[in-house]
Fold:
Amino acid sequence: MITLPAFRQFLDILEEGILFLDQQRQVVAVNEAASRMLGQNHDNILNKLCPSLFQGTSCARSCEKRGYCTLMKNAMQGKKVQDLVVQRPDGALIPLRMWAMVLHSDDQREYCAVVLRDRTHEVQLEEAVSDRLRLGGLVGHSAVMQDLFRQILRAAASEASILVTGESGTGKELVARALHENSSRAKGPYVRVHCAAFPEQLLEGELFGHARGAFTGASVAREGRFEAAHGGTLLLDEIGEVPLSVQVKLLRVLQEREIERLGENQARKVDVRIIAATHRDLPAMVGSGEFRADLYYRLRVLPLHVPALRERPDDIPLLAGAMLANMLARHPGRDIQLSGEALDALGAYGWPGNVRELVNALEYAMVHVDGTTILARHLPPEIREAGHQAAGLPVAAAPVQALVQRYYRAPVRQEGQEKEILLHALKETGGNKAAAAEKLGMSRTTLWKKLKQYGIDKLAQ
Structure:
């Protein structure tokens, strides 16, 4: 039988805060996590009415109005989770997620266990993602890209192996770089191995290194990519092309965190975070025996999928603007912009080559443009054809998106440009702040702050 001191010790090691309430909504027990979240010591919380701990919140107002614990009532009806922001005695605001469990004692009395989870990190992460149109080299404000940004930042905080999947040309290598740059290993080396670029007999030496005389021509010892990435991140690009003989050795590295150079018997410890990337269907390859199941599951501890460009057409103007800005930076003195009809054609095309094909299309247009504006006729033939077929049906060239594209061309975000974008977004949405924020790919809070900054908040409804 568990003793009371042991039970209290168990409660105190939990990351979630726990409050036990009696039928009068009085706190009869509390753990250390709850005390820390509420900014009050154990004795100050005990015997207090629950609403007094959450003053000013909708939960407390509801309890005071109804005279019973609405959280407990909701728990009985299956509605368990509630998010709120609590102001602690020191004035600090803390976002909490609350839910309740109804407990029955031996004497048939009902008690309520209120569980608290600190959402500070989660909210910071959401705000960091919703306020940005870029993450490293990745660009996008669509829902799928914002979700990918969020997943990348979460995964970057871990040391687990990551498998990045997606079609060719979607930007899997950019995802790997963003993972590295936002991790604790950002100051360490970032090393990429394109596994498909080496024949089987050379790939092993490239990954693990070799001793002098290990094979004909090995006149000096050489470290491999694993050793070069020590203390940092190693990207195994196109992992699906690695032969089975090398897969066995990769599995050993993942398990033992050590390598052996070719021609040596000495094990060398390596501290490397592994990211693997592929456009191939690894589960199907596992089923056919082309890829080891144990290696697959070792690599995909944290899976990330990069969406195809056709799955996020709203990002095309933003991407095209960012790419055009990069190209113009290499050609000082040129001033070129995309026309609305060119954006229509880009939005109507299916992009089998994804983002890489978009880069090539803009390079093509840069060569063929005969003025300062890229028109549909300056784009590759297959894209022009898609534009003709979709004539009269604009896909991704809404004025606000064209403005965002132009906004990205500027080396520095200037206030006049930003104000212009905000005004157009409000005009397009009839002054609806929530809809304007969604169009611009930012949170409502950020939009409200920017509107106030430029003195145009009165335009929003």
Remarks:
- The chain has three domains: 4-118, 126-307, 312-459.
- The mean pLDDT is 82.
- Residues 126-307 form a domain with the Rossmann fold fold (CATH 3.40.50.300).
